[in-house]
Specification:
single chain; 136 residues; eight-stranded mixed sheet; 8 strands; binds zinc ion
């Protein structure tokens, strides 16, 4: 893994949180995107070299809605930038981690993504992401 790509925060109302985080960071988000297949609306903020993603559920049965029901708003996942997502998935499976989607899917922000089950990572949902333009 190369670096933390972004940290994802689950929020109930993204328009309210967009204002809040813009105040916090002193800068507006640089991108908003809806990922229909995941039932989420996202926004991305840059903080120096780092990125923060806000996620709001657009469907009652989306993973974000379930997360907020269970735990409330807060940090939802940590995403790591990887060079080759398929290779990394294979390596992590070998190491005994449970990969939630073994075939990478298209996530927000022009990335191929895969998630590791928090049960195998001390309760932390880990997202692997590979920039789509880097795809071999
Ligand atoms: Zn993410």
């Amino acid at each position: 893994m190369k670096k933390i790509e972004h940290i994802g925060i689950a929020v109930k109302d993204i328009s309210v949180s967009n204002e809040l985080f813009a105040k916090l960071f002193g800068e507006k988000y640089y991108k908003v995107e809806e990922v229909e297949s995941e039932g989420v609306k996202t926004s991305f903020f840059k903080v120096g070299h780092n990125k923060i993603e806000l996620l709001e559920a657009t469907k009652e049965d989306s993973p974000i809605a379930k997360f907020i029901d269970r735990k409330g708003e807060g940090i939802h996942h940590i995403a790591f930038d990887v060079e080759d997502i398929e290779e990394e998935i294979a390596r992590l499976k070998q190491e005994g981690f449970t990969v939630l989607n073994e075939t990478p899917k298209k996530g927000a922000d022009n990335k191929l993504v895969a998630f590791l089950h928090p049960k195998t990572t001390n309760g932390v949902l880990i997202e692997l992401c590979q920039e789509i333009t880097n795809k071999k």
